[in-house]
Amino acid sequence: MRKPISINIHDSHLGIWQDDPHDETFRSDIYGVLIRQMRDRGWSIGRNEETHRHCRSISPNQRVGARGTLLCDIELAGRTVKVEFWSTTAKQENRNGRRYDFNKMKRMSKLDRLRVELEFRRIIAWLEEVAPVKVTRRDEQDLPAMQRIEKGCAESWHKDKTLGRPVPGYDYNRKSNDGGLLEQGQTVWFADRKGRIIRGTAYYNLNSMWWVIAGGQLFNESCYSLLTAAPADLRTKHNERARRNRLEAELQIAVKRMDYQRAHVLKTIIFGTEQTYMIWARDNQAYYRSQYAGYSSDTAGAGRYTRAEAEAECRRVPHELEMVCPDGSHVRFDREAA
User: How far apart (Å, rounded) are the C-alpha atoms in residues 212 and 145?
Assistant: First the structure.
């Protein structure tokens, strides 16, 4: 009989953990058997091509799978096996893919949720035949916001024993965006994902993160994004980054369609009369996309920057980045001292 196994379930993630550093069969008896059983249930499971391409040494410990509209990622890390599911039909918000969205179970169709729950039950039932199992489920999304905070405080290992909740150990963990020091239960203002300013009540979480209850919802925000005083104009959206991304995307579309009049108007809105520059990453042999996020192999998808923006970024990593001028010439900043 194996030592007890802990199973932790959160959203669409299931983790299998065993505290036995001397057990050398965890890989074959748990990781290997889990993959074989899922294949027997109709899952198509193979290697993670991206991991295999960039880091072959850990490639045997990572597998990806698909069955119908469900995808999964299986990873062996030490004495832990992690299995994560997501659906190809779920509403996507994260630009990096549905796997990185929050609340993946809620985003799934009812049928996909039932399929994932069935996988959880099958995995638990199999492990109960192997060893004593303790199952912990951290699905607190349906709890009221304050109860979720209280539950987190009760389970936290970092709480102050006298107060019964975590407390910030340093002022930089509670310094707000406008320079004030946050206090437990204080009223704060912050911008939501769409840039709208909302007001809420802050409660300390961990490190520099604070829980904020606003409009009955619970947000997890960095102290650097919170304000201790209301902005002068509450109606103005704080969505400069999203606005810039949208305008640059429209600019690229206009250029591809050869609608140069519209492209000129959009360029003037974004940059005024300034000339635009690009950023070339030598290590990736590609251009930066808009707002320093991602890469493009051609100039059509490259982001545009003012000279000050491009130069500041290139000077930050001068051994990797080059500033591309309007005439196409490249400027390097790692040779200035030579």
Answer: 9
User: What per-residue string of b and e applies to 167-197 under the rule 16 or more CB within 10 Å gives b?
Assistant: ebeeeebbbbbeebebeeebebbbbbeeeeb
Axis crossing angle, helix 260-271 with helix 240-256, rounded to the nearest 10: 160
Q: Which amino acid is at 163?
A: L
Instruction: Pick from 72-76, 136-140, 212-216, 298-302 the range whose average pLDDT is largest.
Output: 72-76
Furthest-apart CA pair in the chain: how many Å? 74
Residue owning tokens 């961990």: 206
Is 245 exposed, middle or buried, given 0-12, 13-18 or 19+ CB atoms closer than 10 A?
A: middle
Alpha-carbon gap, residue 49 to 61, rounded angstroms: 12
Closest residue by Cα to residue 102 from 16, 12, 14: 12
Mean pLDDT across the stretch 272-289?
Answer: 92
pLDDT digits (tens, 9 = 90+) for 89-124: 998 888 788 988 888 998 999 999 999 999 999 999
Place of tokens 């294949």: 39
Q: pTM for the full model?
A: 0.54
Separation CA 87–CA 96 (nearest Å): 14
Closest CA to 86 of 71, 74, 101, 96: 71
- Domains of the chain: residue spans and CATH: 5-137 (no CATH), 145-225 (2.30.30), 260-331 (no CATH)
